[in-house]
Amino acid sequence: MQLSPVLNILGLLATILAAAMLIPMCVDLYFGSDDWQVFALSALLTGFVGVSVWVATSRHEELDLGLRQAFLLTNGSWVTIGIFGALPFMFSELDLSITDSIFESVSGITTTGSTVLVEIEKASPGVLIWRALLQWLGGVGIVVMAMAILPMLSVGGMQLFRTESFERAEKVVPRATQLAGGIGLVYTALTAIWAVMLALSGMNLFDAVAHSMTTLATGGFSTRTASIGAFDSVAVEWVIMAGMIVGSLPFAHYLAIVRGGWHSLLNDPQVRWFMMLVVGLISLLCWHLMQNGLEFADALRQASFNGISLMTGTGYVSANFSAWGGFATTILLIVMFIGGCGGSTTCGIKVFRLQVLASTAKVQISRLLRPHAVALAYYNKRPVSVEVMDSVMGFFYLYILGFVIIALLLGMTGLEFLTALSGAATSISNVGPGLGEVIGAEGNFSSIPDSAKWIMSFAMLLGRLEIFTVLVMLSPGFWQR
Fold first, then answer.
1. CA 314 to mean position of chain CA atoms
2. Three-state SS for 378?
3. pLDDT score at 165
4. Which H or E run includes 232?
5. Residue 382: helix, strand or coil by DSSP?
6. Which of 144, 350, 99 lies closest to 252 in space, CA to CA?
7. For residue 470, which of 388, 395, 400, 397 has the smallest C-alpha distance?
8. Distance from C-alpha of 150 to C-alpha of 148, rounded to nearest angstrom
9. Which of 383, 426, 436, 446 has the fewest CB atoms nearer than 10 Å to its CB?
10. Cα 403 to Cα 375: distance, rounded to the nearest angstrom
């Protein structure tokens, strides 16, 4: 396998990351924080490595990635950014260990939102912007990956979204490059719009910019320890709720809207399913909270914000949902696995896979009743191929198996049952907060053992890269000629 094309792109990514570090450096300089030196040093180190690798592997001919190289590049991108993104945390006044720094960085780039910071307000403005920037970059990277790369690699049923003009894996890089420009512009415009709306809702400009980045990325890193609950503003919560839903819908439709076509968004079955699931979740939680004595307005506000936040994998918190009782906790644990639509910044199993699974189950029942009838599974009024059905079934099986194994491993590190179970769910589904007192709405991940943090860091990457992309690298056949 030729590694030079892969290393070339990884070098370029590290160079872009080094340039991104100059933004929090300028923020710290503006606010008079000494941590600007940390970002200057981190940018210098990252830039030196990135440019060196980029120049050493550059060729004049066009890059041509094969299937295995595309898998290697996809994994390498997130690992590279996760490692170099940890440098500012390690060198800053927060004085985080290597484990904590990498955990925070991987949590950022995978848009998970789990944090080891006990008092977030103590971090410098540059560090707070860096956390938001990591999630923002991770969000746009995930959209490009879901729209350009994973359909080519036929990962977990993503081939449903393969476009006819880009059928072969060798087209990965040109395809990603073409899409990245359009997506980047739409993503930046949406972030700017949400920053303005949050500023008009009462946030200061710094908080508005940071939260708009982590809202559209469905990441959930906040500038406050109490998350969105610290602002205690109905207007802020509704703006962020709208942002979380926008981040959970397929970005391909936003590109179509820019070109003047609204119909694709309105006619997409996974968008309709997603909105129905959101309404159903809010209704259940709202009813449960009213049964426990809350007024309708408060119940609707808390149920809507925290329900959408956990289902979309954003992980913002406005109330202590761990104290809502067993029924609500069970529902929230289940919806952590759902996520949003394919081609969005969200995490989890994704709505389109649930639709394919439901359609497959319907076909199986039909075959039991009429063994000789020809029954086909459909998605978006098109027949689903056996290849896609097998891919989705395999993904679902591995997702649940991965969750079980991670929960067992976390239990072995000494975590109690609810912490281990919700820790596995929140990391593989890239949600952020878990359930219970330790890692729940009012807790953080600082007190869990280092071994558990490494397990969860791997689980975040596993969930973010759609499982198959990581597991294929562990196959001996992948490395053979």
1. 8
2. strand
3. 43
4. none
5. strand
6. 144
7. 395
8. 6
9. 383
10. 32
Residues of the chain with pLDDT under 70: 1, 60-64, 163-175, 481
Residue 386 in tokens = 């056996």
Which DSSP symbol is given to 159? G
CA distances 396 to 185, 348, 376, 475, Å, are: 33, 10, 20, 19
Q: Where are the beta strands (DSSP E) in 285-396?
A: 378-379, 382-383
DSSP 243-292: HHHHHTS-HHHHHHHHTT--HHHHH-HHHHHHHHHHHHHHHHHHHHHHHT
Q: Find the length of the chain.
A: 481
Residues 305 and 311 sit within 8 Å (Cβ to Cβ) = no
Angle (deg, nearest 10), helices 4-20 and 125-144 = 140
* Angle at alpha carbon of residue 249, lines to 243 and 255, rounded to 5°: 100
Please count the other Cβ atoms lying within 10 Å of the Cβ belonging to residue 356: 25
- What are the phi and psi torsion angles at 74 (to 5°)? -60, -45
Unique residue bearing structure tokens 């202590």? 320
The pLDDT value given to residue 167: 47
Q: Report residue 287: phi and psi, to 5°.
A: -60, -45
C-alpha 348/C-alpha 326 separation (Å) is 22
pLDDT the model gives residue 125: 96
Is 219 in contact with 135 (CB distance < 8 Å)? yes
- Residue type at 343? G
| Contact between 458 and 424 (Cβ < 8 Å) | no
Q: How far apart are CA 187 and CA 255, in angstroms?
A: 10
- Looking at residue 132, what is its pLDDT? 96
d(CA 463, CA 301): 29
Question: CB–CB of 446/99 below 8 Å?
Answer: no
Q: What angle do CA 410, 411, 416 make, to 5 degrees?
A: 115
Query: What type of residue is 192?
Result: A
- Reduced to 3 states (helix: H, G, I; strand: E, B; else coil), residue 379 is strand
Residue-range domain boundaries for the chain:
381-479
Cβ proximity of 38 and 46 under 8 Å: no
